[in-house]
Design goal:
The chain is α/β, with parallel strands linked by helices. Helix content is 29%, strand content 16%. Helix 1 packs across helix 5. The termini are far apart.
């Protein structure tokens, strides 16, 4: 466990969660803004703190497969196989919810997204709290996701407690896969790829479009993950725009790129540039989640 957060701090954070307060905590993807997933009043605080619209559901974080099964009406063989391979880790499974899961968590939908995070502090917090923790990214809605405790403190200074677990090592949000109703549908790409999933359960579909109603997954708004400075996604060979800006040099490896992306953009966003540019990443499947985040964050989505 990271030395930056002590056992006593985790115990205090767990007490706050049980008391209906908000706690920001690290996961391997990004930092989450957590509340007791079974407490509707606490869930309302998440939406208020983030300025999050009511049609955007929350992911519920668990410390075990048993805890996840207690939140859903069905746990098909696909879910068991995927959880055994990818949990703890950056894969969210969407399944029909139990009646005791508040509708506010799921944006009124009959399904809930559940995930077992890999970060040891996240695991310790959920276990100590003894309740599942609903947690979107710990930032204002549509803004740049946090991958360090300092990012959280700057974005949400009113949060009761921020647990510091160092930089997130995956760096972008989880893959979201619906297996409700018998069909496996990829709702949001992440670093667990479509091929990774298909190697375990066979062919899956990908979501085609999103309507104006409640979103089936977080992260599907056209504009999302955005810094305050305009972000420009440059196609290959395109010149830099005029003005005072910076073009980020990113790693050639997709996993290293994902781990560095939000941190690099946060740094540039604080430096007073007129624009931030990022070269369009390759087309391979391992880059799908990175392309998704950049396209939603860039000027093309505004």
């Amino acid at each position: 466990m990271e030395k930056k957060t002590s056992r006593s701090e985790i115990a205090r954070a767990a007490q706050l969660i049980r008391a209906g307060e908000l706690v920001a905590f690290p996961t391997e993807t990004v930092y989450g803004l957590g509340a007791n997933a079974l407490d509707p009043g606490a869930i309302e605080k998440i939406y208020a703190a983030k300025g999050r619209p009511p049609g955007s559901p929350l992911i519920v974080h668990v410390s075990s497969i048993e805890m996840a099964r207690g939140l859903v009406r069905e746990w098909p063989e696909q879910a068991e196989k995927l959880a055994r391979v990818f949990w703890p880790g950056p894969l969210t499974l969407v399944l029909p919810k139990q009646p005791h899961v508040p509708d506010r968590v799921t944006a009124g939908l009959d399904t809930v997204g559940v995930r077992m995070p890999a970060h040891p502090i996240a695991q310790a917090l959920i276990q100590e709290a003894g309740v599942p923790i609903a947690a979107p990214s710990a930032n204002r809605f549509t803004e740049l996701s946090p991958t360090t405790a300092q990012h959280v403190r700057e974005a949400l200074p009113g949060v009761a407690m921020v647990l510091d677990g160092g930089p997130s090592n995956v760096g972008i949000e989880s893959t979201v896969l619906s297996i409700a109703g018998g069909d496996a549908v990829l709702l949001r790409p992440g670093m667990v790829t479509k091929s990774d999933i298909e190697a375990v359960i066979g062919p899956i579909q990908a979501i085609g479009s999103v309507d104006d109603g409640p979103h089936v997954s977080p992260g599907l708004h056209a504009r999302h993950y955005s810094p305050k400075t305009p972000l420009i996604l440059l196609p290959p060979g395109q010149d830099l725009p005029p003005g005072r800006g910076i073009c980020l040099e990113m790693p050639a490896d997709s996993r290293a790129y994902a781990a560095a992306l939000y941190e690099r953009v946060h740094e540039a966003d604080a430096q007073g540039w007129e624009w931030i540019a990022v070269r369009q990443p390759p087309d391979g499947e391992e880059w799908a989640a990175i392309r998704d985040r950049l396209e939603r964050a860039s000027l093309l989505s505004r």
